[in-house]
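Dear Dr. L.,

I hope this message finds you well. Following up on our conversation about the binding site, I have prepared a predicted three-dimensional model of the protein together with EPZ. For your records, I am including the exact sequence and ligand specification that went into the calculation, followed by the structure tokens. Please feel free to forward this to your student if that is useful.
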Amino acid sequence: MSYISIIGGNRLEGEISLQGSKNATLPILAACVLCDGPVELFNCPDISDVRDLLYALSCAGVKSKLTGHRLELDGSDAVPFFFGPELAGKTRGGVLLLGAFLGRFFEAGMAYPGGCVIGARPIDLHCKVLKELRVITEEREDGVFVKGRPRGGKVVLPYPSVGATENALLAAVRAEGTTKIYGAAREPEVAELCRFLQKAGAKIEGVGTSVLRIEGVSRLHGISYTLPGDRIVAGTYLATAAMTGGDVILRNTTGVCMKGIFESLRVAGLTVYRTGDAMRLRASGKRLPVKMLKTAPFPAFPTDMQSQMTALLTLAAGESVICETVFESRFGIVGELQKMGADVSCDKQCIFIRGGKKLHGATVTATDLRTGAALVMAGLAAEGESRVYGSEFIARGYENICGTLSLVGAKMAQTEEYEEKTENRVWQQKDGNCETEQDTSSALRQFV
Ligand code: EPZ
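The resulting structure of the complex is given below.
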């Protein structure tokens, strides 16, 4: 088992270079399959969700090489492929391979990506948009199979699903005719995907709005592209600075859209200064409870900051309420923060925080990416030592979180826990009697 060990109480102070955006990178990796030449991506985050998606792509013949934060990717030898459960379920971004491989080969197949602790994560809207592009869609026991060249038409999303919007874009850019997507998600990551596709030759209008118009083209070409910084990681690290009473500057933040995040920090009494490519949060000791914070699709307060804000508000004296409207069971943070002494509870969709008590270190377990990040934040603000198990979830979206935060004063380290070998050893005595001894060292002792 691996965990992050943390000694809390240090103020975070200094500069961090912000990593590339996980949720912009994953759809753009899928989009590279549509390009008939090599693609070069800069500022690519080195996180396990990216590596898992690159592995899935490699199974379909896509070559890639990640050197530092520069990714070279060549899909020219890609082949039509069925992504089985072990590949489709690895990362949520995998569902986007459906639209990408359909857009490239006019056929694709994928096992159901499956749910996770934050919700069932169905893909009914993904199937809906592909059907509206008049693609033959078969939902079988073992997965979803789509076939036929997408034909331009009217796509209507009853809910602005980020992934379903992205799949519709990936399928429509090489469709026959023009497609209009109504009710599209407006998250910055969707706009980034549009910009990548436009640079590769796609014809898309309405970028950043809920109505997208895509004129199908016959081919997309290879390009070089720089990925934006990760707005959720930025919000996480700024909130961490606030929780430790610190002063942190984030670099490499040009173009990072913080709409919905800065507002939530501001109502909690925290001001973020932004100049050039930097964002700075200098904690003033003032932390205000927030009467009501509600997660919703962009440009509202993002669900991916919900766990982190919950952790932050445990330190603000008074009653705060956060209601989660995007995922049905994104409340893993509540039980774990209680172990650290926080007075926090949840009912159907809302989290109730009675903040103001000091947190104390504890052994806690992350069950998803953002809960894990929030528990690290709480551990850094708590008195004493904490252990955050489930650090593999954090590695899915935060690049080297221990190294990054240690640079600004955090006392934390990734720790591997080896199963202590407890072996009953029967030592044969010279006189024929037997003596049993427990050997708890994992190193083999030399028999003498
Ligand atoms: C993306 O997930 C992000 N992931 C999520 O970030 C983010 O929380 C989410 O968008 C909302 O902003 C990536 O981009 C890789 P949705 P996605 O489709 O596309 C329901 C993180 O921590 N729904 O907008 O899966 C769904 O169950 C992750 O970085 C359907 O019912 O989100 C959810 O309740 C977590 N049917 C809601 O819509 C569908 O076919 C929003 O889902 C699709 C979605």
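In brief: The first strand starts at residue 2 and ends at 7.

With kind regards,
A. P.
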